Amino acid sequence: MSASTAPTLIPNPVAMWHGAIENLSPHVSPCRYLAPAKWAAIRENAIGFCDRFGAEAHRLGWTAQELFAVHPEHGTIRVDWCGVLMVGGQPAIDVEANRILFERTAGYRNGQGQQWGIPVWEFAKKGVRC
User: Fold this and answer.
1) Which H helix or E strand runs over 14?
2) Which of 57, 70, 62 is CA-nearest to residue 115?
3) What digits encode the pLDDT tens for the residues 55-70?
């Protein structure tokens, strides 16, 4: 079997990210102040990111918090604690070592003093309605 026809293995953390996001309802926002329509777009784009760029993001050292975090008490209201994929609602077009590119902007993981929250699926388990 040639290398070009070999299946691509998805790293376990990426499969976990994908599954955790997919298990959250697209119709029920995990955060009171995050409109359901915006949440549905964020969720869809996060799943798409895992499918298209997850393995590369994992290889580059991106973590669940850097990608999917929300503030542990205030959810997406505190964007300064949010992961790159939880604020814009736009599909990613590329992933690099320290940034994720979107059509008109980029999200970075190495901001000075950056604090990360908890993955949105952990926030949803807590049942906190910010």
Assistant:
1) helix 12-22
2) 70
3) 999 999 999 999 999 9
